[in-house]
Design brief:
The complex is a heterodimer. Chain A is mainly alpha-helical. In chain A, 81% of the residues lie in helices and 0% in strands. Chain A is built from seven helices and no strands. In chain A, helix 3 runs antiparallel to helix 4 and helix 6 runs antiparallel to helix 7. Chain B has two domains: 72 residues, no CATH class; 94 residues, Orthogonal Bundle (Arc Repressor Mutant, subunit A), CATH 1.10.10.10. In chain B, 61% of the residues lie in helices and 0% in strands. In chain B, helix 3 packs across helix 4. The longest helix of chain B is centred in the first third of the chain and has 22 residues. Chain B is globular and about 50 Å long. Classes of the chains: A mainly alpha, B mainly alpha. At the A-B interface, helix 1 of A face helix 1 and helix 2 of B.
């Protein structure tokens, strides 16, 4: 008699058959789905196609990410520069109002023509600032980046924003030069009728020279920029030559001021002897002269260093 | 573990282990043939899922018994037995042996809800009929430790079984104090 806890022969045989069938089923390779490539070559080609497609999708995703970042940066910059342009517009409107007020006062003899010139100067400054900001906005809308003002910056979409901005900024010293020329004439007239001394005329002349030098520097920068764009000068030399032009401007601006300061020291020293000036006046004038001599020495040093670097760059060191 | 898994190897293991495995399961279901067959088949299907990836175990019967135990626990956690008369399962009586399907099902249901250490020692004692000395030797414990573990395990099992005791029969249950500290004197 079979024990209660003995399996039946039927069960043992049936489970053995089932295990055998299951083991054999698991040993059989999985049928290759019809939609998969049926040959090794086709599988290889399909794998390559899959890799290329994956790379394409990845690149597209990265490009989309960069584009989104670029758009966000462009929007932020545009907003910031539009706000600055709005402020510049307001400044221009105020300057125009002040100019009209000055013209009205001149027409009724309550102010001199000089105040109209000064009003025009302020209008020119505000106008130049607004136009420069508008140009920067155009550049941002094209590039999505901060505008570049270096002389070695490339053209943007065929446009030379750097030169355009330089010409706009140049309008300010042009207007300032007209104003200073008028100041010189005014000083000379007053000197002729004994209402001003020679120092006033010379001071006005120094400011006029300063504006002429500034104007000359703008022209030089434009010339350097053009030489960079047409090719004979590389980016490094371009920037060095801009530094050279600025150092020359400082030297040329300081030199007439220093000559005037020296004359002023001599004049005050002579007046001390006759009691028309104090030693404090002489000391202050001397201090100013010394400061200008220091500024000039520094400007000369800067100019020498820049020229040395230009020479080194040209010699390939 | 060997990772070679030929059909012949598996069938050899099957033929060597099917009877002790079936006996292990059958005792725990009180000889319920269809349930024992289902659980043994389920155990073997798990083996066929595991062995091709991991290879044949070094001790196939021990592996199968361990899986069968888990299969039993899973089964009895899902299926609650009929309400019982507590008097019919005098677990503190040293002569008690759950040989009938209904009492075995009740004990297995209770064991499925105990800690493994308690369930295993009670399973050895009730279903496999091992003596305290045999359990102690198999588990590298002293007989005194096994006796203590059996006592604690019984108390836990009793608490579990009270959940499925028929209310009208509760009064007929043996007073706990009478057998609480009964010595385990089964010898083999």
């Amino acid at each position: 008699m079979r024990h209660t806890h003995e399996p039946s022969d039927d069960f043992v045989a049936k489970l053995e058959r089932e295990i055998t069938r299951e083991v054999r089923r698991r040993h059989q390779p999985m049928p290759w789905p019809q939609w998969l490539p049926q040959t090794r070559l086709a599988a290889t080609l399909a794998l390559i196609a899959l890799m290329v497609a994956s790379m394409g999708i990845g690149a597209a995703a990265m490009a989309a990410g960069y584009a989104a970042q670029g758009n966000e940066r462009r929007n932020q910059l545009t907003t910031s520069y539009e706000q600055r342009a709005d402020l510049a517009r307001q400044r221009l409107a105020i300057a125009n109002d002040e100019l009209k007020a000055a013209e009205r006062q001149v027409s009724v003899g309550m102010a001199t023509a000089m105040s109209v010139l000064e009003g025009r100067m302020k209008v020119a400054e505000a106008d130049a600032q607004l136009k420069s900001l508008q140009l920067q906005l155009e550049e941002i809308r094209i590039t999505g980046l901060e505008p570049r003002n270096e002389a070695s910056a490339p053209r943007v979409a065929g446009r030379d924003f750097v030169s355009e901005r330089l010409r706009i900024e140049m309008s300010v010293p042009e207007m300032a030069l007209s104003l200073e020329q008028e100041h010189v004439r005014d000083a000379q007239n007053r000197f002729a009728v004994g209402m001003a001394d020679g120092v006033d005329v010379e001071s006005a002349s120094v400011r006029m020279i300063e504006m002429q030098t500034a104007l000359l520097t703008f022209r030089k920068k434009l010339d350097i920029r053009q030489k960079f764009l047409v090719g004979p000068v590389d980016a490094v030399e371009t920037e060095l030559r801009i530094l050279e032009a600025e150092a020359e401007q400082r030297t040329k601006s300081i030199a007439p001021k220093l000559a005037l300061a020296r004359k002023e020291v001599d004049r005050l020293t002579g007046r001390v002897d006759i009691g028309a000036a104090t030693r404090v006046d002489v000391s202050l004038a001397t201090l100013k002269r010394l400061q200008l001599e220091t500024d000039l020495a520094k400007a000369d040093l800067d100019l020498s260093l820049v020229r040395q670097r230009i020479a080194q760059h040209r010699s390939g060191r | 573990m060997s990772r070679t898994l030929a059909e012949e190897d598996i069938l050899k293991v099957y033929r060597e282990t099917i009877r002790p495995l079936y006996a292990y399961v059958s005792r725990r279901v009180g000889g319920d043939k269809s349930l024992a067959e289902d659980l043994v088949q389920d155990t073997w299907m798990r083996a066929l899922n595991s062995w091709p990836g991991r290879g044949l175990p070094d001790e196939p019967l021990a592996w199968l018994v361990r899986v069968a135990r888990n299969t039993l626990v899973s089964h009895f956690r899902r299926h609650q037995p009929e309400l019982i008369d507590p008097a019919s399962i005098a677990i503190e009586d040293e002569r008690f042996s759950p040989t009938a399907p209904d009492t075995a099902a009740v004990i297995s249901w209770g064991l499925a809800r105990l800690r493994r250490a308690h369930a295993d020692v009670l399973g050895d004692f009730y279903f496999d009929g091992k003596s305290v000395g045999e359990i102690a030797a198999a588990r590298s414990l002293s007989e005194r430790a096994v006796e203590g573990r059996l006592r604690r395990a019984r108390a836990k099992l009793k608490t579990q079984l009270e959940r499925i005791a028929r209310p009208r029969d509760t009064a007929r249950a043996l007073p706990q104090t009478e057998t609480e500290h009964a010595p385990h004197t089964r010898t083999k």
